[in-house]
Amino acid sequence: MQSLGIAIRFSLLSVLAATAVHAESPAQPFNAKDLEGWTTKEPKTRSHWKVGYATLKEGDPKTIELQDNGKAPRQLVNVQGRGVDIYSLAKYGDVRIEVEVMVPKGSNSGIYVMGEYEIQVFDSYGKEKLSGGDMGAIYGAAPPKLNAQKPVGQWNQYVIEFVAPRFDSDGKRTAKATFRRVTLNGQVLHENVKMNGPTPSGVTGKESATGPIMLQGDHGPVAYRNLTITPLK
Questions:
Q1: Integer Cα distance of 131 and 122 in angstroms
Q2: In sequence order, what are the beta bridge partners of 223?
Q3: Distance between CA 172 and CA 155 in Å, rounded?
Q4: What's the CA gap between 124 and 193, in Å, rounded?
Q5: Which pick of 3, 11, 108, 139 has the fewest CB atoms within 10 Å?
Q6: 121/103 Cα distance (integer angstroms)
Q7: pLDDT at residue 181, as a whole number
Q8: HEC readout, the chain
Q9: Higher pLDDT, 210 or 8
């Protein structure tokens, strides 16, 4: 009986350890192969999201061309200007999001944390006076501290640390959602920005304890790659 009890305790500890490792392990909602695990806000018949290798069309920096680059990891690409937003079926709470984005000239997109709080993706290269609609802004809530965007056609890396809102047993919010830190190409754009509520045009327009990652696809061509989400401790 004693050996049985030890075995059971060992088994439980193993399960708990495995669960803890899983909870803090990075997730990659985009598999770089296809659109499995993603859906759209509007009918998929209107979607221009493709999986492939994005380059700017020669002589036309406003246009993305989709190419086959052999065995290179594929990218999540919105190839036309007017389409639909796409979001992950998986949902997350407190997270660190790492993602790279390529913005054609004059284009516009957005990274919606929890599907509701937008970090703006916009062609603001070279602009000095930045607003709540420029690259790196928390849309409509806080402009970026500086312009860290690379030239059109180059890849920009976002790192977003986000703490989800908290709710009591009655569903009343007890703590606001917070962008703990947002960097673009290694430059700090935001620190400890508390959100009064969702930004416009999210998945539901409502706050919750968890939510998906949404990428805006109805304003312009754009390409994303190397999307990694790590739960914060």
A1: 11
A2: 77, 102
A3: 40
A4: 22
A5: 3
A6: 8
A7: 98
A8: CHHHHHHHHHHHHHHHHHHHHHHCCCECCCCCCCCCCEEECCCHHHCCEEEEEEEEECCEEEEEEEECCCCCCCEEEECCCCCCCEEECCCECCEEEEEEEECCCCCEEEEEECCCEEEEEECCCCCCCCCCCCCCCECCCECCCCCCCCCCCCEEEEEEEEECCEECCCCCEEECCEEEEEEECCEEEEEEEECCCCCCCCCCCCCCCCECCEECCCCCCEEEEEEEEEECC
A9: 210
Q: What is the pLDDT of residue 69?
A: 72
Q: Residues in the chain, how many?
A: 233
Q: For the chain, which domains are there?
A: 27-231 (2.60.120.560)
Query: What separation, in Å, do the N-terminal and C-terminal C-alpha atoms of the chain show?
Result: 38
What is d(CA 230, CA 73) in angstroms, rounded to the nearest whole number?
A: 20
In single-letter form, the type of residue at position 94 comes to D
Nearest to 191 by CA among 199, 183, 200: 183
Q: What's the mean pLDDT in 77-101? A: 95
The two three-digit tokens of residue 147, written as one number: 């312009």
CB atoms within 10 A of CB 176: 15
